[in-house]
Amino acid sequence: MKKVRCIVISGYGTNCEVEMAYACKLAGGEVEIVHISELIYGEKSLDNYHFLNFPGGFLDGDDLGAAKAAANRWRFGKIKTTGEPLFDQIMRFIKEGKLILGVCNGFQLMVKLGILPGLRFQYALQLASLTYNDSGRFEDRWVFLKLDPNTPCVFTQGLDKLYLPVRHGEGKFVVQDENVLTAIENNHLAVLKYTHPETEQPTMEYPFNPNGSISAIAGICDPSGRLFGLMPHPEAFLHFTNHPHWTREQLSEEGMGLALFHNAITYIKQNIL
Ligand SMILES: NC(=O)CC[C@H](N)C(=O)O
To answer: What's the ipTM?
Structure first.
C-alpha cells in the first residue's frame, strides 16, 4: 500500500524538527527530516512528498524579525542545479492539493512567505504578520484553545478544544488592514483562538492570550483548509506524559496534539494517494 510521505524541513535555526517528525511517524506517515540545503542543491524535491512540515525554532536567529530571512530564502532562492525558483516548488505543492503545516516559527514563515492567510497567495503578498508579544517577553506556557467548528481546516476536523504549549517572543497575530481580518473571520480561517479557561470564550486577557493577538487568533488556515499555521506546539503534546499535570490527572494515552497529524495523514490517504 502507498505510504504518506512527510517532509520536515530543518536548518538555519529550526529546533522542533525531531518532535514534528515523530508526530508524523506516530500518525502513520513515512517521514524524512530534510535540511533546506538538500532542496537548494537539488538533492531532494518537494515533488516527492505529500505533507510539508515547517517546524519551530529561531530561523536565522530571528534577526530580521522571526522567520523573515527564511521567507526570503524560500521566496527568492533558486535550485543550484536547475535554476528553478524554490517558490515554484511550493506553488506546485499547493496546486497539487497537498498539505502544509507550520508550527510557531514555521507559522511565522508561512505568513511572511505570503501563503497564509492565502487570500492572494499566488502573488505571495504578505497580508499579515506575527510580531512582538505585548508583554515584551518570551512567553512559555500552556494555553486553552477553542476551534472554529465551521473552519475548512483539514487538520482540526472533529476537534472542539485543545490545551497546548506556546513558546515564543513574536506570537502577536496582526493584519495589514481590517479587510484582511474581515476576510479571515468571514471565511472561518481563524481556526483556533486563545480562550479563557472559565468562560471558554476567546479572550484578550493575559496570560490566557499570551501575546495580544488580534481577535485572540492563535492559528489560521487558507481557504482550501490544506495550509495551516499555528503558534501553539501540537508536536509537544503527543503523549500524556508531555502534559504538565500528567502525574496527578487522569489523561488519555494520546496527547491532544497528535490528532492534527492523524487528520493530516487520513486526509492524504483519502484524497491524494
Ligand atoms: N518556538 C518557536 O518556534 C519560536 C518562534 C520565534 N523564534 C519566536 O520566538 O517567536
So the answer is: 0.98
Helices (H) and strands (E) in the chain, counts: 7, 11
Q: Is the CB of 168 under 6 A from ligand 1?
A: yes
- Fill in the DSSP letter of residue 144: E
What pLDDT shows up at residue 123? 61
In angstroms, rounded to a whole number, what is the distance separating the alpha carbons of residues 28 and 40? Answer: 28
Calpha distance 182→85 (Å, rounded): 32
Phi and psi (nearest 5°) for 106?
-70, -35
**Could you tell me the pTM of the whole model?**
0.98
Cα(16) to ligand 1 centroid in Å equals 10
Instruction: Mark the ranges of the chain whose per-residue pLDDT is less than 50.
Output: none
As its CATH architecture, domain 5-271 has: 3-Layer(aba) Sandwich (3.40)
Supply the pLDDT for residue 1. Answer: 76
Q: Which of 14, 60, 108 to mutate to test the pocket of ligand 1 (most atoms within 8 A of CB)?
A: 108
**235 close to ligand 1 (CB < 6 Angstrom):** no
